[in-house]
Write a structure and sequence with these properties.
The strands form two sheets. A nine-stranded parallel beta sheet has the order 8-7-6-5-4-3-2-1-9. By secondary structure, it is of the alpha/beta class. The N terminus is likely disordered. The protein is built from 16 helices and eleven strands.
Length: about 375
């Protein structure tokens, strides 16, 4: 079986539920006798409101922009959004060179608003010369301002060796490349596996968009394909790779595919102190958990506030206009802002029952929405001549 993956945002956009939604510091060196940290001010601890949405700086740290027209980026900037557009070796996206050209064009057209991540093809990774060519591609991207390298789930879910066996992320062929990343401090944006729902029967899935998608696309529903590696096997391979490269600056895309349980994600972050994660396309799973135990989810975000980044996984088609994309995204962005910043109870497309917002302190929201991304992807949004 050939596993063709998908983006959660693309599924959301295609879902009938979209219509319902539209209706709606680098630390200072240690010193002796350091004074105790000041408690957050009352202002910093008070949540933002919906009225603050356009005023507060924000970064959507996981998008895929494929149209060089800057209209969407310019509109996002007026809403105080900056963006990280991520190149991906995904067959349903434009070729990698085209993705890169769009990223560089947008970065030039709207200075200080777009950061980007380079990627590479793993298709010929068993062939002589692949490693050297991949290193050269990565170096060229970094020289043009890329903030990191995306490594996608086709490794582990579709790439096969000469014997027809799936190649996992801890395969020895990739070790020299990941050694390079670790030694040079290059950030690896890793997306391994799929949401845990992919391996569950439809009735047990936790969010509506997964249930609808896998019902319509049984070829990608892993519960129907026991010949494919399990979710546990995907996570174990990823963790073995990280253990073998302890200095690697790893960003786990989509909550590191540990979206089903914040306790599991907390354990991952504790075991791999170099790792950070984004929340892209998994906020529905957070909301499902907070329906059952709101305070547990809230405590998790507050505890790991320095290691989480906001993102959506928005994917723009090459022929999609900026106006059309903006119409799609603004209600989505505002719904997420409402969830993180207010204590409102409201309906969301992913869930049948209402969810209550987390009303996070504003200093936590500032980290989630921009400060962590600015630190982790340092320099990505600098306006360069």
């Amino acid at each position: 079986m050939t596993f063709r993956s998908f983006t959660m945002s693309a599924r959301w956009a295609a879902s009938p539920l979209a219509a319902a939604l539209l209706a709606l510091s680098v630390a200072s060196p240690a010193r002796a006798a350091e004074p105790p940290a000041k408690a957050p001010s009352a202002q910093a601890s008070r949540p933002y409101t919906m009225a603050d949405f356009e005023r507060v700086p924000k970064i959507d740290a996981h998008v895929h922009l494929h149209n060089p027209d800057p209209a969407f980026v310019q509109a996002a900037r007026r809403l105080n959004f900056k963006l990280l557009t991520i190149n991906v070796d995904y067959p349903d996206f434009p070729p990698l060179d085209d993705q890169q050209r769009v990223a560089l064009s947008l970065r030039k057209s709207v200075p200080g608003t777009i950061a980007w991540a380079v990627s590479f093809s793993s298709e010929t990774s068993d062939q002589p010369g692949w490693l050297e060519a991949t290193r050269a591609r990565v170096d060229a991207g970094l020289a043009q301002g890329a903030v990191g390298v995306k490594v996608w789930k086709n490794i582990g879910m579709s790439l096969r060796n000469a014997q027809g066996e799936l190649v996992m992320i801890d395969d020895a062929r990739f070790s020299p490349l990941f050694d390079d990343f670790a030694q040079r401090g290059i950030a690896m944006l890793g997306h391994q596996g799929e949401p845990h729902n992919c391996w569950l029967p439809l009735a047990q899935m936790t969010v509506n968009n997964d249930r609808e998608y896998f019902k319509a696309h049984p070829q990608y529903h892993m519960a129907l394909h026991p010949e494919m590696p399990s979710w546990e096997a995907q996570m174990a391979a990823r963790d073995r790779m990280l253990t073998a490269h302890p200095g690697l600056r790893f960003i786990g895309m989509h909550m590191a595919s540990l979206e089903r349980n914040v306790d599991e994600l907390a354990d991952f972050l504790d075991r791999f102190p170099q790792a950070n994660v984004d929340l892209a396309a998994r906020i529905g799973q957070l909301q499902a958990q907070s329906q059952k135990d709101r305070e547990k989810v809230r405590r998790f975000i507050v505890k790991y506030q320095d290691r989480l980044m906001y993102g959506t996984d928005l994917a723009q088609a090459p022929d999609q206009s900026g106006a059309a994309l903006l119409k799609e995204m603004v209600p989505f962005w505002r719904m997420h802002w409402r969830y993180f910043n207010t204590a409102d109870r409201f309906k969301v497309a992913d869930l049948d029952a209402p969810v209550q917002g987390l009303a996070l302190p504003r200093e936590v929201v500032d980290k989630l929405y921009h400060r962590n991304a600015e630190r982790i992807y340092s320099g990505g949004w600098e306006a360069k001549p």
